[in-house]
Amino acid sequence: MIKFLALLMVLVFSLLHSGCTGSKTPQGLSGSADLVLLNGNLLTLDQSLPRAQALAAIGDRIVRVGTNQEIEPLIGEHTQVINLEGQLTVPGLIDGHGHYMGLGESLMGIDLKAPRTWSEIVSIVATEVSRVDPGEWIVGRGWHQDKWEWPPTPNVEGSPVHDELSRVSPDNPVMLIHASGHGVFVNAKALEQVGITAATPDPPGGEIVRDGSGRATGMLRETAQDAVRDALARYQASLPPAEQEARLRRQVELAAAEAIANGVTSFHDMGETFEIIDLLKKMADEKALPLRLYVAIEEPAEKLAEHLARYKMVGYGGGYLTVRTIGEKVLDGALGTHGGWLLEPYADLPRSTGFNVVPVADIRRSAELAIEHGFQMAIQGIGDRAARELLNIYEENFRRHPTSGDLRWRIEHCQVIHPDDLPRFARLGVIASVRGIFATSDGPWVVKRLGEKRARERGYRYQSLFESGAIVINGTDPPVEDIDPIANFYSSVSRKMINGEVFFPDQRMTRLQALKSYTSNAAFAAFEEQHKGSLTPGKLADITVFTRDIMTLPEEEIRTAEVSYTIIGGQLKYRRE
Length: 577
Known about the structure:
Number of strands: 27
Structural class: alpha/beta
CATH superfamily of the domain at 1-92 and 533-577: Urease, subunit C, domain 1
CATH topology of the domain at 1-92 and 533-577: Urease, subunit C, domain 1
Largest sheet: 8 strands, parallel
Number of helices: 20
Radius of gyration: 24 Å
């Protein structure tokens, strides 16, 4: 009863509290806390008490923030007490963009990020062939041709041809997903299963890469990969239903474990089907979701029109599942596969301006449905043509519906923005969802794609977005990149590439900007600023603790920091051994 009354006071206080000069606590709080953190270096991101030493939580909410002396009276017989030993403690990190089930799936397949040659990848597949039955699909992810030490021989536009891969996997269809997710490389068996031949036309919004004779090389860009992904889905659907669900639940668990070990307490999942959302809701009912999920629906407009009204959920399952966003419909593709939709042709592929992957008409219809049902839009716009099209669609809807309320529509990635369009983000209230680490992982090759002048004027202009007044959020886009917030933070503030060069240093974020992009800004982008984003009494006790102070460390030492504790809803979910 005491805990109930204390928590009730917390909730009332969270709505009414004002700034104070001492500790932050609801008036009249009594009884013992469930969790107390002492001897910390708390960076609260709460303007009324920016720094603190200790914190107490009852249930899943913070109840007091202040000094050790102010918190210690709340320690009772059953209070869990953690001595932080001076470690940096911040609001729970929110990865603002990723693919949750894709992350889990990638942890069940072959990781192709490490190999530095095509031959290494072929060797890895050959080993996998020896472990599986004939006819079983082999799936890997993470390769990027621009990160290999040398181009494969032979190659077409930098990508290999399938012969070497097909020789080691004659009886197993193989699908190797590009790091960006915007293309796949397949062997002859997979091409045979989906019926792709020299006579197969390119689908709208995609390309079957061919050699000089017209033969498919195995590289399938953008929508051309859909046939292979559909074939894999049919294969998986042929498995017993219990095995299918067990596999999906395993993906949920693996993704959560990876995120939590990296200090992530909430995850913006940019695109799941209605079927996956049904599973997540079922797991929320079972209290089996380990991580807070903010899930976007990725379905065609006609399917959205049929089902959208009954799928809106806010804070479902005790705050572990929210569904109120349409995304990540990919208006265009990725720069790495020459798929980003540009206003002018690629510098290194002058025949192409990239791809409009999801038809503009579908995006327009989805925007209408979002307005009608009170949903957020969060659509991928990588190239400057894609960003302009999205800003136009958003502005048209805002103008037609001036009383539609607080929409907070987003554009995901924002990698290339024309200077004329950059101020429109702040003017329209469109949130820029960026990937700090993309600037350094793409930097070694993006100038080749865009040319130096265009890359400098339009590429990865994260500081310019901040200075324009736009809300900027950050994330790692797993499984495209590792879900490593420290690496992402370092890339955001240093822009230092693997070769030691700094990629357009004027676009570096400050450390405070980078931290806010992972906390308070990301909470705002999910309509959750009343519950997340700062260490404030009344908000959720979602907390991340680092072994070293990434806000003051010399820049070159930031990567040495590690996650020490991850706390979600007052529960210790991860402790560094």
